[in-house]
Each structure stands twice: as structure tokens, then as C-alpha cells.
Amino acid sequence: MNIEEKKSTGLTKDFSVTIPYGTIAEKISAWLAEKAKHIRIDGFRPGKVPFNIVEQRYSLQAEQDVLESLIKEATQKIIKDNGLRLAVQPTYENINQYEVGKDFSFSVSMEAFPEIKLKDFKDIKVDRLVVEISGKEVEDALKNLSERHVKFNVAADSHKIKEGDQVKIDLDCTDNKKQVKSFSGKGITIVVGKNEVGLNFIEDKLSGHKKHETITVDHAFEADYADKTLAGKTVNFEAKIVEVSVPEKTEINEAFAKEMGCEGLEDLRAKIKDSLQKDSLNLTKLYHKRHVLDAMADIYDFELPKSMVQKEFDSIWARLQDEISQAKADGSFEEDDDRPDDELKKEYESIASRRVRLGLVIAEIAKAHTIRVTPEMARNAIFREAMRYPGQEKEVIKFYRDHPQMIEQVTSPILEDLVVDFILTEATLNETKVTTKQLAEKLKGVLPGYGEEESTDKNESSKTQAKTAKPKKKSESKAA
Fold this sequence. Notes:
The protein has helices at residues 21-36, 51-82, 135-148, 200-203, 254-259, 265-299, 306-330, 341-368, 375-387, 393-402, 407-426, 436-443; strands at residues 2-9, 12-19, 91-93, 104-111, 125-131, 151-154, 166-175, 178-179, 185-191, 214-220, 234-248, 428-434. By secondary structure, it is of the alpha+beta class. The strands form three sheets. Strands 6, 7, 8, 9, 10 and 11 form a six-stranded antiparallel beta sheet that branches. A four-stranded antiparallel beta sheet has the order 1-2-4-3. Helix 6 packs across helix 11 and helix 8 (341-368) packs across helix 11.
């Protein structure tokens, strides 16, 4: 077997392989001889079948198996002799060009992982945010808790509705006298002034009315409303008031605390503070992670396997196109980036390169420091993934059991978190105390979408929003 390196371009190496016909013929004969020991053919005792009959029946299979084995042997020898760690499967040329009686020649191209020299983690500088929860925040949260657990008492029929009252209505929505079932229903509960159910155009007119009265409203939906059957139309709503309840003032006292499952008011305050602290800790972890990844993207610069970058880009671009197509189909697409696709693709190629580079660095750190996702972590990740599909949990778990190669999709974020946590123990940290408000300011522009104004009233329900979230032909400048 003669192996020769023909070309080396970056991480890609091309080799030519020539296998003498004599070697092939010898291995084919050995294959057939071994086969003859075991085959059974009517009229012959086992192991006594004439060689010419064995050759006639199995020569094609012998040739295929031998060539496949020799190609595999040559590939493994190239990998071993050159110390390669392959990024993708090798690609071959001319492996179907074998001719009996002639030497067999083919080409193989291999793209390897780059050699990554890990840098001193102390070169990574991160502001370690420590959030201080103020007493006012605890009291505000306590007040909000009491407001969410308000009790209502049924009011007299003569009571006039006012803000804060709970009202039950039977709603009938019609479009040209044809009922719109998606907006019709009985016993719909509204707390006036909360705008919690997305019927603010009815809720705003309830004040001053009483039980048994009926309110009629003509509501015009916007032209780009998500439900195309209602977009641009004016439909009629009739709301019959069937019950009115008034709120009972909730006293923040020991009894309330015990109702919340606490030993007393101070215990409730302590639990609220602990909850706020945990929430802020989760946010600071995301902040730290983003800055660690940004720092690594800046300090590591090495050639990337082109095939891996292309695969990542194809995945990102395909997902974007799917989202745009879906948005166009439901009328929610908003064109706010007039750059040509070629320019956009360059931006997404940059994002793909960043993701691949960080993925390779994280894998190298995990290998060097024996950081692994434990089986228990993997099981918990699969369980959490299954919980995202109510009613199909068993099917999801079975899918991962039957396709173990897919488990990496749910465990790779865990490995990333483990590596980032390890880096933070070695990095240069500048501890900075911040308030919750200051943390929110720092997270803007760091976590995608954090702090951005919503395109619709945050209190509207998905059922009645005039506009849905609009996919845009725009990308983030960075992606973790």
C-alpha cells in the first residue's frame, strides 16, 4: 500500500492511495477460502464445496468487502501516521473505479481539528456582579404578593362597577351576525383596571355599570392583525354582566404570612428576599457567562474547519428563512433591514464562526480539565426537555433512548455552563456590588432581547393582541 500526501491547505490534507492488485487478489482469495469453510450448498458436505463454485457465487461480495476493508485500513493509517483528529468524515474520490487485474488507486481528503493551545485563564477579566437586595424591594414584592392573593366577595346587584372589582361576563362576538367562536364564551372573569385578559376595549367600559346590564362594543381590528379572518374588520361584542365582586383588603400581617405557608411575617420576608436573591443570581450567571464567552472569542484566534463553519451557517440561515416564511404566511413579517442577502450572509457567517470557535475551545478546556456531563445531569436534561411536550413525555424520553447520538443537543449547554463555571474560578474577577436596577441596565444589550420594549401592550393576551412578534431580517452582532 502506497500513501502519498498530495496537498495541504490549512486544516485540509489530501492523500493519494495505491493498493497493488496482488494484495487485493490475495485478500480476495483468503476471503473466499474462509467463506468456503462455512457455506452450505445442496449436494455438498459443509466445507467441501468446490472453490470454483464458491468463487462464482461470492466473488462480487468478496471484492466489495476486501476493497471496503482496504479503504478503511488506509484511512486509519493516514490518521495515525499524521496524528490527525478529524473534524468531519473523510471524503473519497475514485473508490468505485476498481478494475480487476489493475492496481487500485483512490484519493482521500481529510479536514482535521485545529491544534488549540489553552491560554492562562487569568487573562480573562470579568466583573463579578453581586446584587444587593434592598429592604424596599422586599416590601414591594410583599405588597405585590398580597395584591395577587386578594379575595373577592360577591357585591349587591345595585353595586356600580369600579376599578379593582372582579366582573364575570358572558361574551358574544359576531361578524355580520355570524358568531366568532374564538372571542365568545361564558363566565369570562375580568379584574377591572388589570388588562389581564386582553379585552381592554370592553374592560374600559365596565365602570359605572351593574349586574345584569349588557354592554355593546364595536371593535375595529388592525389591518395586520394576526388572525386573517378578522384583520381590518369591525366586529360586534355584547358583554352581559352576570356577577360583580368587590376586593377584600388584604392585611399584611402574621395571619397572611401563615396563609402563605410561613411561620410568620419575618419568615415570609426572608423567603421573599431569598427568592429575589436567587432570581438575581440566575441573571448574573447569564451576564458572567456572556462576558466569559466574549473574552474567549477575543483571545482565541485559530483557523476553523470550513465544513463545521458551513454546517453551522446553514443551520442558522435555514432557521432564519423558516421564521421569515412563517412570519410572511401569518402576516407578521416586518422588513426593517434592506441590506442584500450577500451582506446579511457575511454577518451570519461571522456568527457561525464565533460559535464554532467557542465550541472547540470549550471542548478543549473540558478535555484538558476532565470536565464532564454526568449521566444524572444528562437524564435530568432529557427529563426537562420531555416536560416541554405535555402528554408526549414518554415518547420524547424514548426518542433519546433510541437515538443516543442526539443527547448531545440537550447536554452541550450543560457542558458549556460547567466550563464557564470552571473558568470563573480561575479568571481575574473584579467584584462589583450592584442594585437590581443597575443589574437590569447592565443586562441590556448583553442578553438578546433583554429590556427591549414589547411591540404590544404587555398586558394583552396572545388571543387579542393586535400584532404578533415580528421576525425581522436582522441579526445580533454576536451570539453566545
